[in-house]
Design goal:
The structure is a single chain. With 84 residues, the chain is an alpha+beta fold. The protein has one domain. 38% of the residues lie in helices and 10% in strands. The protein contains three helices and two strands, in the order αβαβα. It has a two-stranded parallel ribbon. It is globular, with a radius of gyration of 14 Å. The two termini are 27 Å apart. The relative contact order is 0.18.
Length: 84
């Protein structure tokens, strides 16, 4: 299991800043993430990709921003509705 998916309340682990951001996204209920490669935040997308292999997280990496926009337009709106 990916170390960022470990659910051990109260247990302290040492994380890099980008790992903490990825973990925070999961804890906040993020179900969908999209990334653009080559940014300073590439470690965030790497961690999200690794976690998506072991969870329900949907991750999209677009080689071009234009492709990302076209991909997002094809998604049904109800995929983004989340009840709290």
């Amino acid at each position: 299991m990916h170390k960022l998916l470990n659910d051990s309340p109260g247990k302290k682990i040492m994380l890099l800043g980008n790992e903490a951001i990825a973990r925070g996204a999961i804890e906040a209920g993020c179900a969908f993430a999209t990334t653009y490669p080559g940014t300073p935040s590439s470690e965030i997308s790497l961690n999200l990709f690794q976690m998506s292999q072991e969870s329900d997280l949907i991750l999209n990496t677009a080689p071009m921003k234009k492709w990302l926009w076209k991909w997002l337009q094809q998604l049904p709106t109800q995929d983004f509705v989340h009840s709290v």
